[in-house]
Amino acid sequence: MPKRTRAGALITLAVTGLAVASAGPAGAVPKAPGFLAAADLPPHPTSSWTAGKVTGGVPEDTDWDICLRALPGHESAWHRDFRTDLDTNARQITVVLPDTRSAKQLTSWLNKDIKSCPGRIELKDPDTEATGKDYGSLPVEEGAHVYGVHTETSSGASDVRLLSVGRDGRTVTVVNWAQLGGFEGVPVKAFKKTATTAVNKLH
Questions:
Q1: What is the mean pLDDT, run by run of 10 residues, along the chain of 203 residues?
Q2: CA–CA distances in Å: residue 150 to residues 124, 159, 187
Q3: Which residues make beta-bridge pairs with 97?
Q4: Would you tell me how many other CB atoms lie within 10 Å of the CB of residue 86?
Q5: Measuring CA to CA, which residue among 45, 66, 52 is closest to residue 128?
Q6: Distance of CA 36 to the CA centre of its chain
Q7: CB neighbour burial string for 127-161, b if at least 16 within 10 angstroms, e if fewer
Q8: Hey, CA dihedral for 56, 101, 40, 113, is it positive or negative?
Q9: Entry pTM
Q10: Helix/strand/coil (H/E/C) assignment for every residue in 58-88
Q11: Which of 63, 132, 188, 195 could make an S-S bridge to 118, C-beta 3.0–4.6 Å?
């Protein structure tokens, strides 16, 4: 049975975060940047969004996400999962780097990861056809970029995700929206608004 590459479309919501720990006083723990709220996500036609807690660390299941290879391993990171009652979910991951140069480097790596992701998916699983789309940049703070990735397996499983990478100073945030299906009807305009809000909320 061929392995199905879901491209992260159905993100496991019961995730154990790699908590940002500190042996010192509470004040030594870095403060989490601002995060999206459920109302900031693209409206779902039949279900409302539910937001999970802002949790320290990069989610463990990000290790297998070959579209975001540069993310795992960051200590000063937080994430928040979002879900609907149906087949649509989302996640925001934010990382605070030591300096602006490091943040620029991570942003560059993530953009390259996403652009090259469809080709790597097909190399990893020849039974999966992957297609990427570049939806362009957004004029917010130090910038953000929006992409789409669709996968379809030989057995007919079809998943699509929208991803954005944005930066404000030394803070980088990634937003992932995903559902079953193809590019038809994906809320690109609404997701661009979500991506812009995500960067604006980092202050």
A1: 40 31 42 95 93 94 90 90 94 97 97 97 94 97 97 94 97 97 95 98 91
A2: 15, 6, 14
A3: none
A4: 12
A5: 66
A6: 12
A7: ebbbebbebeebebbbebbbbbbbbbbeeeebbbb
A8: negative
A9: 0.85
A10: CCHHHHHCCCCCCCCCCCCEEEEEEECCCCE
A11: 132
**Single-letter amino acid, residue 80:** R
Instruction: Produce one character per residue of 28-48: b if its CB has 16 or more CB atoms within 10 Å, e if not.
Output: eeeebbbbbeeebbbeeeeee
Longest dimension (CA), the chain: 53
Could you tell me the two tokens for 180?
Answer: 């079953």
- C-alpha 20/C-alpha 8 separation (Å) is 24
**Are the C-beta atoms of 149 and 7 separated by less than 8 Å?**
yes
Domains recognised in the chain with CATH numbers? 48-200 (3.40.1000.70)
